[in-house]
Write a structure and sequence with these properties.
The protein is α/β, with parallel strands linked by helices and 555 residues long. The radius of gyration is 23 Å and the shape is globular.
């Protein structure tokens, strides 16, 4: 029997619980793993009779709920792969979402789609488009009968992970049972999990690898750990609830992108006193780790009992199942302070003395604080290679980050062209990220496709966004930088920055954004675009969609 099905059966005999939080004070529902297992076993038999099984994917479109978790467990117990479809982004119309989702799901083959509230009205739309779609709760209510363990091999697909396509076209990553087992066990080894059992609290969508693997499969594989699950819809409706829930449920671990921690910092600075002393791991990932935002979070959370050492910067990607590197637990945010000019112009991370500054002047030089993201998790290999020749680079030389290991996918589902492009001839996966190594730890400088070239100089959008976020009136974590083609006789590559704000003094905000960007990188943005809250396109997990932002906001 494969690792995941063994884990489901093992968890049913353990003491861990799963608590589902409902928004707007609607209460909580707590289940033991054994209760979820019993419901999933009945549903697995029902799904098998519906044609779900090895080779026919199961797709779940639903909010985080008992029904959704039972459906996922049942899918794995039926021997099929599980995919959580992304829920509609805040800037997407229902019609556009339904059409894009239908097109993506057709690329999976012949999936069976279970549709939960509040999207059951889309069931007919999917069915008309040639997909087998049915209401999730209706099928659960009809479940009855027995379940027989299927014949599943370690190389069979466990998860078909839809990627967000933040910098390019969306793809479907094929994660085998062997990949999943390797990454989960690697994370446990890297974090010393077996000696410390606790309680994970997450609002991340299950359609995201950190939500599905990090927040569900990880505690499931243990069975003794508790997990508290909230919905991303509820988080967006009331972000203050995240830290309040950690305090109330005494969570020991949580996870989120830097932008979410930035918002938490603002709320913690002025809100009522909480008790965050139980947190041992506040993992930052899913988007580039911003040292300014994470420092601000640790400072704001300190008065609530939070220990700064609990900040855990990490690097991962769906193609690696989830985790590639993890910072040591208890070490907190650590940065490599380097000469910004040499980093941008020569691709060399030359260290400078650390001091009380952040991406400003020091001894006449521009300095840059680059978060250390930890060493590779056990079983993962990592190298930095020259972009032109593919040769391995020494430490502190910037190149492409490449990985290989038992956790790494063998390719994209039904997409041999993209699979061939992502792997090197000697079997390494090209991550598409630029970075360098310091004493075996990874530092990521940005996405290859996102780098903006001005007058022969590499400009990293993350650095532009970090600088713009220091301007008064700008919403931290809600900033996007992108290149655009300037018109006219003095045209050429231009730098644009779009920021969200709630304030009306737009001229001053534009001036302040331009000044902070110039102070940090020595370049004036050619355009500063001001937007209302919620306008910048993001994935459901909070990642910036740069290509879409450039399409919408190019001057």
């Amino acid at each position: 029997m494969v690792y995941l099905i063994e884990a489901i059966e093992r968890a049913a005999k353990e003491t861990g619980t799963v608590t589902f939080l409902a928004g707007a004070g609607a209460g909580e529902q707590q289940y033991s793993w054994s209760q979820l297992y019993e419901d999933a076993a009945r549903f697995a038999g029902h799904l098998c009779r519906r044609g779900v099984g090895p080779g026919r994917p199961l797709v779940i479109l639903a909010l985080t709920s008992p029904s959704a978790i039972i459906a996922a467990l049942a899918g794995w117990m039926a021997g099929t792969s599980v995919t959580f479809a992304p829920t509609p982004a805040r800037t997407m119309t229902p019609g556009t979402y339904a059409e894009e989702t239908r097109r993506r799901l057709l690329s999976l083959g012949e999936p069976v789609i279970l549709v939960g509230e509040p999207w059951t009205s889309m069931t007919g739309t999917f069915a008309e488009g040639g997909l087998a779609a049915m209401p999730l709760d209706r099928e659960l209510a009809a479940a009855a009968g027995s379940w027989e363990p299927p014949l599943v091999a370690e190389q069979d697909t466990a998860i078909l992970q839809l990627t967000s396509g933040t910098t390019g076209g969306p793809k479907t990553v094929r994660i085998s049972h062997a990949n999943l087992a390797a990454n989960v066990e690697a994370i446990k080894a890297a974090t010393g999990h077996e000696s410390i059992h606790g309680r994970m609290l997450s609002w991340l969508p299950l359609s995201h690898d950190m939500g599905l693997v990090g927040s569900l499969v990880m505690p499931l594989s243990c069975g003794r750990c508790d997990v508290v699950l909230s919905s991303p819809v509820d988080y967006l409706a009331r972000p203050a609830g995240w830290m309040e829930q950690i305090s109330r449920h005494r969570a020991t671990a949580t996870v989120g992108p830097s932008s979410a921690y930035a918002l938490a910092a603002r709320l913690l600075a002025t809100g009522p006193t909480l008790d965050l002393s139980s947190l041992r791991c506040a993992l930052a990932g899913g988007e580039p780790v911003d040292p300014d935002l994470m420092t601000a979070f640790a400072a704001a959370a300190a008065r609530h009992g939070f220990q700064p050492g609990a900040v855990v910067p990490a690097y991962g990607m769906a193609e690696a199942t989830v985790a590639v590197t993890l910072s040591p637990l208890g070490a907190g945010l650590r940065c490599d302070t380097v000469d910004g000019g040499q980093l941008d112009q020569q691709g060399k991370a030359v260290p400078v003395p650390a001091g009380p500054y952040a991406d400003t002047e020091a001894e006449g030089r521009k300095v840059r604080r680059m978060p250390l993201l930890g060493p590779p998790v056990p079983g993962m290999e990592l190298r930095i290679v020259d972009l032109d020749h593919g040769s391995r680079l020494p430490e502190r030389q910037v190149g492409e980050v490449q990985i290989r290991g038992d956790s790494v996918t063998d390719g994209y589902h039904r997409d041999p062209g993209s699979t061939d492009l992502v792997f090197t001839a000697d079997g390494w996966l090209r991550t598409g990220d630029r970075g360098y190594l310091v004493a075996g730890e990874l530092v990521v400088t940005g996405r290859l496709k996102d780098v903006i070239i001005l007058a022969g100089r590499n400009i990293y959008p993350e650095e532009v966004e970090r600088a713009a976020g220091r301007a008064p009136g700008v919403r931290p974590g809600n900033i996007v930088a992108f290149p655009y083609r300037r018109q006219g006789p003095l045209g050429g590559e231009g730098l644009a920055v779009a920021v969200e704000t709630r304030f009306d003094h737009h001229d001053q905000i534009r001036t302040d954004v331009a000044r902070h960007v110039h102070d940090a990188i020595g370049v004036n943005p050619h355009a500063v675009v001001l937007l209302p809250p919620g306008a910048i396109p993001k994935t459901p997990s909070g990642k910036l969609q740069r290509a879409e932002a450039a399409r919408r906001f190019t001057p």
